[in-house]
Each structure stands twice: as C-alpha cells, then as structure tokens.
Amino acid sequence: MKFLSCTSSDDIVERTFDLDGIPGVLWTPPIGSEGAPLILIGHPGGQHKLAPGPVARARHYVTRYGFNAAAIDAPGHGDRRRSAEDQRWVDAMMAARQAGESLAPSITALNVSLAERAVPEWRATIDALSGLSEIGDVTIGYGGLTLGSAIGIPLAAVEPRIRAAVFGGVFTYPELFDAARQVTIPVQVLLPWDDREIDRQTGLELFDALASPEKTMHVTTGGHHQVPAFETDDSARFYVRHLRRR
Amino acid sequence: MKFLSCTSSDDIVERTFDLDGIPGVLWTPPIGSEGAPLILIGHPGGQHKLAPGPVARARHYVTRYGFNAAAIDAPGHGDRRRSAEDQRWVDAMMAARQAGESLAPSITALNVSLAERAVPEWRATIDALSGLSEIGDVTIGYGGLTLGSAIGIPLAAVEPRIRAAVFGGVFTYPELFDAARQVTIPVQVLLPWDDREIDRQTGLELFDALASPEKTMHVTTGGHHQVPAFETDDSARFYVRHLRRR
Fold first, then answer.
1. Beta-carbon separation of A216 and B221 below 8 A
2. Phi-psi region of B10 (alpha: psi -120 to 50; beta: other; left: phi over 0)
3. DSSP letters along B196-209, please?
4. Which of A1, A72, B31, B121 could pair covalently with A24 via S-S, beta carbons 3.0-4.6 A apart?
5. CA distance B98 to chain A (A)
6. ipTM surpassing 0.95
C-alpha cells in the first residue's frame, strides 16, 4: 500500500493510496482515532471514490463521530480504465435504454462481474488498512448504495470483519438475492419510495431476503439517488450502535 | 384545566390534570423550557397515559431534548370508565378472536368511534395546554402507535397546530385511509416487519396513502408492539428536524 497524496485540514486528513493497482482514499481524524471504527464507503455506479456523495459521508463520519473512512474505485470507475468487456455491457445497457428494452440482462451481467472482481479487492484493502498502525484491529462497517450495494452485499456475505452495513437503491437479480440470504450482520436498508428506475417491490423483497436478525429499513420519499441528507447521520448512528466498543 | 398532582425529580416534572373529565398528564423540564416543542403522546389500545411505553418516551423527550410532553387517556381507557357500547365492541372482538373469525368489523367500529370522540378531546387539550404560561404558543408534534395512530391520523388531518407526527402499527380500514389522505405534515411511520396481527402490506398502503410530501418509514424486525428502543430517539430527532424553531 503506497500513499500518494495527503491533504489535511483542521478536522480531517485525506490520503489517497494505491494498493497493487487499486486506487483508494483514507480519511482519518487529525488526531489519533484510538480504535474508532472504520467505515468502508462503496460509491454508486458511474461515480468514484472522490465523488461528492462518498466524500460528504466520509467527512460526516470523521468530523462528527471521529470514525475512520475509506473508499476505493470499483473496477472500471474513477482512476481505473474500463475493460473492453465492461464497455460492451455498458453499451448494451445504453442501447437497451434507447430501444425501451429491459436493462436487466446487461446490468445483471455487469454488476455480477464487477462484484466478483471488487470483493477480493475490498478484502485486500481491509488487510492493508488493518496493517496500518493508525487503524489496526478496529471494528469495520460498510455503506454503499446502487453499485455500492451490488458489491457490498456479496462482500458482507463472505467477509466476517464487516460487522454492520448500510445498503439500498440497488437493481436486483438472483445472484444478489443469493448473497443477501447469507448476510447475517446488522443492516440498515435505504429505500427511495418513488424510484422510477428500480421497482419498490424489489427493494422490499431484498430487505426480506437479508438473513440479518437485526435489520432496519428507512423508506424515504424521492427517486433514485435522492436519499435525504439526514440519512447520512442516521447511518452514522446505526454504526455507533453496532461498531463502537463499549 | 385542573392540576391534580405534581411529582418532580432532578430532571422532569410530572403533573396529572383533569380537563372537563379528560384525565391527562403533562411532563416538563424542571427549569423553563423556553418555547420548546410540545409532544402529544397517544397511548396504544388497552393501555393508558401513564403506561410504561408513553412514560418512557415522555421521559426521553423531556430529559434528553428539553421538550414538553403530554398524554391523555383515550375514551374508556386508564382512569375512564368504558361505555356499554364500547364494551359490546370489545366483547365482539374477543368472541371473534376466540372463534377464529375476522376482528375487522369490531375493531373498525370501535376505533372509528373512539377517534370521533378523542379528536375533539385532544383539540381541547391543545387549547388548554397552549393557555398555560409555561407552554404557550409552541410548535406541536404528535406520536402514537396502534390506537394512538387510529386517533392521531384523523387528528392530524384536521388540527393544523400539529406540525409533525409519528404513526404506525395500526389496523387499517377505509375511514383511516380517508384521514391519511388528508395528512400533509411531515410524518415518520414505524412498521414492525413481522407483525402477526397486522399485515405488513396494509402498513405499506397506509404509508403510501399519507399525503405528506415529507414522509419517512422505519421498518424494523419484530412483531406488534416490538418497536426497538432506538426508535424513540429516532422519533425525537425527527421532531427536532421539524419542530425546533431556528
């Protein structure tokens, strides 16, 4: 893991890093975080680790709660080149949208493939971050909507170091339901009630599929990507409940 | 309005009162609350104004947030005698339950009638509380599950002084949907996902029916009356968002 840049202000330190070709960013409080939880932030599809949404959430967690936060670019996103195969799926998605056909086959193929590649990358990132003296053996949470859930749900299904997660707003397919049925950690699901891209019924079914004994779903008005700002703090409080050591 | 008793501790003052035959209770911080919001608490069916649930919520709002809180006994509940007609509906409900028949006709008749009587009682209570020098012209919120929603939804539909409300866990019928369609204030709905008494689909339909542009629903695991304790604080934060004057 190689740190590439460091920007620091009164209340947060932002360091970008490279981990064997995975571009990432780590946000920490300026003074020692003393075993504070680490929140992994999965960016939405088409965005990247330093997009306004992930950065705003990271800032909130670090400056208000003293947490650590980290994000990496998903394959083909941000600083990473899109593969020819990914490009074909993206093209197929655009063509389907233009033709008024179902996006399901192309989104499913793309998201399943991205998750297969991203899950081991996140696990390697956890290994590397846990090895830093300023992070160490802390409790870990994950949060990500849309693609961040398409990757995060299979990740939470196999990675026991993730102890609580926020998901939502995600297009569903059988592979994602299979993964959800293996998730047993506490989860908070966000469901935009007026999402015109993703049928609300599939959101309810995904919540139902999660095997977590402790799960909560926050349904809010608004469409895809229109999660109200107060949900960022609700997520932080959810992490506090489940990740802060007593 | 006649105060009947006063109990005070380091962090809360509890005064019971009688308002023309309506037994009520007012909780305030021990030192002036300086225009802090007033939260009206509607108790669940079969309970009363001083049952553990309403008292715990009132304590939380007053001691953690400096709010004022008040509750009254619904007709036929707590210190109030049940009328012969109410008793016939309750008997019909018990008989239906024993016979494995639908409770819908008796619950609907009882709840519609209780709401018709309770709505003007709550409005008179608001008049009386607003007339107290220590309360005055404050912003008002309402919160109540089950019967507290059967009464609170029609109340919020007609009483403009109520500016935000928490509802949930309520048996639904056409009169309640009609009232919900007239509610336009911010609402937070609680939906116990595993409620065996009330079908979750009716909870989703009720959320959908509320005409409020700003509405949020918190779905939690557990059955009827099993709302997790952290939702009390989530409700308080919802009231803060909508009731606290800037």
1. yes
2. alpha
3. SSS-HHHHHHHHHH
4. A72
5. 31
6. no
Q: What is the rounded CA–CA span in Å between residue A195 and residue A197?
A: 6
Domains with residue ranges and CATH for chain B: 2-243 (3.40.50.1820)
Residue A42 to chain B, least CA–CA distance (Å): 23
Task: Give the residue from B195, B206, B221, B231 with the most A CB atoms within 10 Å of its CB, the best one to mutate.
Answer: B221
Whole-number average pLDDT of chain A: 95
Question: Cα A138 to chain center, whole Å?
Answer: 18
Judge whether residue B246 has pLDDT over 60: no
- Rounded distance, CA B55 to CA B59, Å? 6
- CB-based contact, B134 to chain A, within 8 Å: no
What would the 3-class secondary structure string for B52-94 be? Answer: HHHHHHHHHHHHHHCCEEEEECCCCCCCCCCCHHHHHHHHHHH
Give pLDDT tens digits for B118-146. Answer: 999 999 999 999 999 889 889 999 999 99
pLDDT digit string (tens) for B28-59?
A: 999 877 789 999 999 999 999 999 999 999 99
In chain A, residues with a C-beta closer than 8 Å to the C-beta of B199 are none
Nearest to B79 by CA among B44, B49, B112: B49
Handedness of CA B149, B152, B157, B163 (dihedral sign): negative
Strands B140-144 and A22-28: unpaired
* Residue B234 forms contact with A (CB below 8 Å): yes
Size of interface A-B (CB pairs under 8 A): 43
pLDDT at B34: 76
Evaluate whether B215 touches B209 at the Cβ level (below 8 Å): no
**Would you say residue A79 has pLDDT above 60?**
yes
User: H or E element: which one contains B24?
Assistant: strand B22-28
Question: Helix, strand, or coil here: A94?
Answer: helix
Distance, CA of B149 to CA of B169 (rounded, Å): 8
Q: What are the φ and ψ backbone dihedral angles of B8, each rounded to 5 degrees?
A: -135, 140
Residue type, B2: K
Residue B103 Cα, gap to closest chain A Cα (Å): 27
For residue A232, the number of C-alpha atoms closer than 13 Å in the C-beta half-sphere is 18
Query: What one-letter code names the amino acid at A9?
Result: S
Q: How far apart are CA B128 and CA B138, in angstroms?
A: 13
Predicted confidence (pLDDT) per residue in A163-206, tens digit: 999 999 999 999 999 999 999 999 999 999 998 888 899 999 99
* Cβ distance of B216 and A215 shorter than 8 Å: no
CA distance B143 to chain A (A): 18
Nearest to A221 among B215, B221, B228 (CB): B215
Contact B221 A214 (CB under 8 A): yes
